[in-house]
Amino acid sequence: MAGLRTVAAIGLALAVLGLAGTQVTHMVAGAMTAMVGTFAIREKTVRGQAVTLALGLPMALVALSLGALLHSRVVAGDVFFVALIFAAVYSRRFGDRGTALGLIGFQVYFVSLFVNATVGQLPSLYGTLTIAFACSAFARFVLVPETPQRVLGRLREAFRARLGQLVTAQTRLLDAPPGELDDVLDDVRRHTARLHEAALMIQGRLEDGARDDVTAALIQRRVADAEVSAERLGMLLLNARSAERADTLTLHLPGAPVPAAGSPLPREDEATAALRRDLGALNLLASRPADANRGTAVAHVRNRLLGYRDEEAIPPGATLAAQDVFRGIGEAARAILGLRLALDGPQDESDDSPATTRSREEFDAEDVSITAEKEAPAAVEEAEEPKGLRRPTTRAAFQVAVGSALAIVGGEFLSSQRWYWAVLTCWVVFLNTASTGEIVVKGYRRVLGTVLGVVAGVVLAGAVGDHTWLAFALVLLCVFAMFFTAPLSYALMSFFVTAMLGLLYTLLNTYSFDVLILRIEETALGAACGIIAAVLILPVRTDSRTDELLATVLERLGDVVAGAVSQLSGGPAADLLDKARDLDTALDDLRASTRPLTHPITPLRERRQTVRYLVALLETSAYHARSLAATAELVPYSKRVGADPRLGRAARRIAHNIDVLVAHVKETDTTGSVESGASIAAMLETDGLGVPAANTVTFRVLRHLQRLDEGITGLARPLDVPVGPRK
Length: 727
What we know:
Layout: H1 2-19, H2 24-39, H3 46-69, H4 74-90, H5 95-114, H6 122-143, H7 148-175, H8 181-209, H9 213-240, H10 270-287, H11 296-307, H12 320-344, H13 354-375, H14 392-414, H15 420-429, H16 436-464, H17 468-485, H18 490-507, H19 513-536, H20 542-568, H21 576-593, H22 595-598, H23 605-632, H24 646-650, H25 652-666, E1 674-676, H26 680-683, H27 697-716, E2 723-725
Parallel strand pairs: 1-2
């Protein structure tokens, strides 16, 4: 959508400027300004976008004026450019609006250098920029409108589609030959990660996109239920075709060993045939729009799947593992029903079975509880922000300013006309990076994409020739590709940026092969200057950054587990899903910070494998924590889930071990050791009541606690924390 919106803004600006008879140089300036005025604004509300866009125009006019005035004053222009860069980066501390205005100021000043703007051209350029901003506003608010409600609606439909894709991938686990099981598991992992990504994106849009806090809480809970039930179904399917129980790590660590003696389930078996049929029906319920899931036939399918929540409805000939799968299908069908109730509102209940009616009653009870929770005043804790040079925006501003100063000096030696390309590269390698390792990897990708883009630029420039509008059409194509590939690969995005610049140079009649070669040299210089500044000026080492984020993940993991176990033991209700999403967000930040350590160019192969293993263990632990939180949320109002005071005693070792790991990572206490010993189930004091049956919720909770205990203990080895029995 961002790509379409930007292309629409640029295309409209070119059309208006072309009809007005604007010269090609000013059309290029207008196109670049329309692009900046569109992609720089990231605020979520329409009002916020309009205000920022209105403030962006005078900011752009001032930047353009200063660029033209300082055009012939080399020293003064360079000093101002460095000051502008510092201010643009520092302004990020003021949120999305400060970030957007800083970006507009920097990029428009860059545009003035790109088109060699002079004081005499300012009146006509003012008109060009005004038209560009007007076209950007028209594209944003009319042609490709973006409101929080529309974005949330698209994300909800995307979540449904991802859920259906995951169920389809999981179904292949039933019949995959042993030799193909690794590929099928990779497919399941990929779709599981995409479903999780969609859930996090919905979480990020609920505050602005939902009608009210109650609706947001309902959607949040239903999405969490669907995600947990779908991931659990994958584990149950893997266990059903294996001779031994699969470890949860199998779903989170690529290359993890597949359970021994895995073989396809017999096709002629009635229970297996029923599983295939019901998984197809579950996919139908999950992925089809609400209007398509109406009617007696669909209601019959839904009722059958929900019936598997009762033991009597499970096929009698199924193995114990297959029975678990049928129960998992029933729980997944319940989660999908809840998701539809939260997203689409009340539905026809005339064809409901007793099992479906019971599920609706459970949802009604949950809705009452959620409404009461959200209407009660809640205390808001504000995290203490770093001060002075410890603040990330301040540190990054100094780093970029120093790096840009080096890039200006070095760029002048390469070319007195194109030196600003080095500055631009230095600027972009600092965007959305937080450590030296991330900057190194981003600089490497920038250079790689630029080299390949130069080759494409040569080909495109030769094909375009003197055809101006063909060149502009290809520029629009490159812009869309740039936005479309940005989340996938920074190298690909840099490729399309460089190809676009080759076309723009053709339009400005300044294209030559030497110019594109200079582009590579300036890019490499800018990346090198950025890396030097990151290493020498207030550096943030990758190891320090990952340790800080690792401690945050462990602390939030402990919060989720402690809150869930407390509620499952009969303690007071808490907002566990918010805690679980905080954990997911912290884990995503950690995963991003470890990418330099797992990148193919990393020379330390053993450390790369260790980091991947550690992140996979944390992902597995987060899954079990989410499952505990989702189960604990049912305690206050469910007739099937009751509190068990014994669970609190069973989870004490997990809490202790998390505290030990956090202390070791933060280096506040390195004398503690992780406790190991008897399983969680064995530690449970039964008080004469015996171990819970395998099909009970308490037993499922114990299994999640056991996997958590194993995962936390497993973290001790890569973190060099001693392990031993409790003293």
